[in-house]
Structures are given as C-alpha cells and as structure tokens.
Amino acid sequence: MRIRLMTLVIVLSSLLSGCGYNTFQTGDEAVKSAWAEVINQYQRRADLVPNLVSTVQGYASHEKEVLTQVTQARAQVGGIQATPELVNDPAALARFQQAQAGLTSALSRLLVVAENYPQLKADTAFRDLQAQLEGTENRIAVARNRYIKSVEAYNVSVRTFPNNLTAMIFGYSVKPNFTVDNEKAISTAPKVDFSARAAAGKSAPAPSY
Questions:
Q1: DSSP code string of 57-75
Q2: What confidence tens digit (pLDDT) does each residue in 96-136 have?
C-alpha cells in the first residue's frame, strides 16, 4: 500500500512538473522578489523627500506651491498599501503607478526651482540629497525593469500550452504589468546639471525673499 502511494505521488509530481505547475511556482516567487525590490527602492526615495523639502524650504520658503506639491505627492504614495497582492490587481497597480509618477513629476519641478537659488545649490546637504535622489531614481529604473521582465516571463508560462490548462485548473492567471504609456517618464531620473551653471552661480546674486 505504501509503495503504491509513493508511486502515485511520484507520478503526480511528474505530471504537474510537465504541465507547468512548478514553473508557475518559480515564476510567482520571482515576481514577488522583483516587486519587493521595486517597493524597497521607491521607499528609499520617499524617505529622502522630507529632508529634501526641508533643505529647499530653508532657502526658498516662498516657493510654497512646489513644496506643497512634493509633500502632497509623497502623502499620496504613502497612502497606498503596496502589498504583494497589489501585483494581481490591475486597478491597484495603476493607482500605484499614478501616485509614483506624481511624485516623480513633483520632485523634478522642485529640482528645477532649485536652479534659481545659487546658495541652495552650493549647500552641501542639498547636493548630497540631490545625488542620493538621482542614484535612487536609477535604482528604481533597474528594479522596475527586472519586475517587468519577471512578469512577462510568468505571463508567458501561464498562456503557453499545455501550461495554460494547468493554470485554469489551479486558478493561475496573468499578472498586470507596468504600462508602457508612462514607463519612460517614471523610469527617467530627474536631473539638474549644477556644473553647467557653476561659474554663473558664483557671481549671480542670491534672489531676495
């Protein structure tokens, strides 16, 4: 009896493996791992925002509109629960994308505003934060790209015959991915070239405020 049971288990394991079940498990774990890295890098960026806003405010306190936009954009990002289940919900993933795109845009405007304040650009803390932000944006782009590829590989395994039959039986379905429309905007790190105007910044008078 025990031998028959073991034989049955071996046969079932072989069938499941041949029909893609193990592929689904491996692919799902790869997606979760890639998603965790995306969240980690986005959180790193969000953690930089308060200090960045505070530093800019010290030199440009009257730029309230831009400072408020950055703060509100960060709050919207923080209001989204980026759980592992989010990657299976197209609407939730779209809201996550929109919130992150909003923060990217707000940070870009903040860095553009900083160009008008030579003293701010010369501030060591600001320059350090700006460098950290640019580095984080680059890491976000890399993490997003890995996630996109992981989801693509998983989705192909779910759709391909005979794996799709196994997917139907066990309830596996394709996962939503980052949309192409705003991929370029989100994955491009906001950049401000301080060196290009370094000479002008030394001689230009600080704006009155």
A1: HHH-TT-HHHHHHHHHHHH
A2: 999 999 999 999 999 999 999 999 999 999 999 999 999 99
3-class secondary-structure state, position 177: coil
Residue 205 CA: distances (Å) to CA of 4, 196, 202: 88, 17, 8
CA distance 126 to 137: 16
H-run or E-run covering 205: none
Looking at residue 2, what is its pLDDT? 63
Report the alpha-carbon distance of residue 97 to residue 187 in Å, rounded. Answer: 11
Task: Give the DSSP H/E element, type plus range, for residue 99.
Answer: helix 90-114
pLDDT tens column, 193-207: 434 333 444 444 444
Q: Please give the DSSP secondary-structure letter assigned to residue 175.
A: P
